[in-house]
Amino acid sequence: MTLLASYIDNFTGVKALCIGDIMLDRFLYGKVNRISPEAPVPVFFFEREKQMLGGAGNTAANMAALGCRVTFVGIVGRDENGRKLTSLLSAAGVHSHLLRLENYPTIVKTRLIAGNNHLLRADQEEVLPIIEDLLPRFERILERAVRSADIVVLSDYNKGLLTPVTAQLIIRLCSKYDKPVIIDPKGSDYTKYRNAVLVKPNLKEFAEATGRQYNPKDADFAQQVRAGAAALFAKYNIKNLLITLSEHGMIFVSADNAADVLQIPTEAKEVFDVSGAGDTSLAALGASLGCGVPVKDAMKLANLAAGIAVGKLGTACVSARELKNALSRKETPEDGWVQKRKINTADEAEALIRDLKKQGKTSGFTNGCFDCLHLGHLHSFMQAKKECDVLFVGVNADESVRRLKGSSRPLQDEKTRAMLLASLEFIDYVIVFNEDTALPLVKKLRPDVIAKEGYAPENWPEARYVMSYGGRAVTLRRLDGYSTSNFVAKMKG
Q: What's the whole-model pTM score?
């Protein structure tokens, strides 16, 4: 096991406190097939909705997904959306202290998504009013929470929770109990972050705070950052700055050694959605520093986590298992059998699906022999992947195929078939099973969605089982002209 991987195993011992502006993220998924005759706007055909933790809530959920024991402190409205956030935090494994206010609406951000494209975002929000009589209660909650934490993370979305008064209160408490605090800032005035141990702006926020412009492609970029950071250190007594640079990675500057600038490149290979990537990066950074990981290694893990997050749709969580898998792939690029890490036992897949449920993500399942992989199979996988966040594919073992298809099958052994499936980008995990039907595996996994071509749900035992606990069954469209039987017949002449 590598050193970085061993750090991830230590996340389970981290007691993290997350404080900040929480909101409900609603994702409405559908299709756009035409333009409205009433106005030149697309007509959105709604198909499904997903509700997720947003803002600081996403940071807390990500830290829990990484294995940390997380406490969250924030403010919501006394309304249905506030109750939903409480439920989502609990489902994510986060212990919460939510102050509920009358006549204050919980913040909701609604996104319309067609395919992989964001069409529109609609925000429902009011800046939190300053309520003096809440401060004593707020301070009592904070003091208990800070005292028992290993790391404190402030996620400021400039919605009113982290004011100069409350932010300084938290920083003083962290200093009193010698607890490291990381701040994800907003705005150009860092007065409220004075005396912070580490502030993590993105490049745009850093530019606003320093009143300067920066280009990572400039030859003297590091020198420019060093000068801007020195100004913030002097003005606000901030100890360290970690600036995220989007596709250019991260750069770290310390007041103790401003001449030594540390920069690392990005890890993202394919970007689908940047929503919540900063929260994921912050969570991994907090988890790392909370268990004593050196800054350089903490940056690598935070960078890697953000790279995974942008490859997903929605405000995505990244689990410790995903981080270790990505790390393993990164550290052994010469290994031509990387796909092995996508091939799981039934027990491993069951654990993965439990993690997904805690994160509010949907699991999908399909299965087959896949003895001669062809375009029809790819067409089915693409359809199935659209119905879920993470797709699991069950593949019949050799003995099972022989019982179902005869002694001349399979044409390819189970290892080959599993490896070919694992190499496809539409498929997240593969499970080899020896039973004649997938029903025992489905009963073990309990996926949110089951999908297969050619089967009406009422005639499909696996589908009936999934629907019995509230899951969905999807009949996939068959691509005409493609089947393994046809290929076998052609080969035989």
A: 0.70
